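Last lecture ended with a question: if I hand you only a sequence, what can you say about the shape of the protein? Today we answer it with a concrete record. The protein is Putative Fis-like DNA-binding protein. Below, first the input exactly as provided, then the predicted structure, then a couple of comments.
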Amino acid sequence: MEEQMTEFSSYHSQPIAASDAQAPLRVHVERVVREYFATLGDELPTDLYDLILREIELPLLTVTLEQTRGNQTKCAQILGLNRGTLRKKLKTYHLMS
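The predicted structure:
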């Protein structure tokens, strides 16, 4: 599983063209997932859902915390999370200060 995460993380490093930068996030996610499957050939990944959620959740939490200058209450409000849930996620990703 950890190996899959590393492979997925390092795989989608292709730059986004300026014309594609305004496309909805789902378009970028779909492209990356399709490219990921294409590289696997006949091999099937396991826990892909959790893998992708972790890939998206970490930068989402990091950037939102930066934008709120570390204010967890504001961060939780922006994300639509309970503050306790946010704190649990921050601990999971070692983002607690």
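Comments.
1. The CA atoms of residues 23 and 96 lie 32 Å apart.
2. The longest helix spans residues 48-67.
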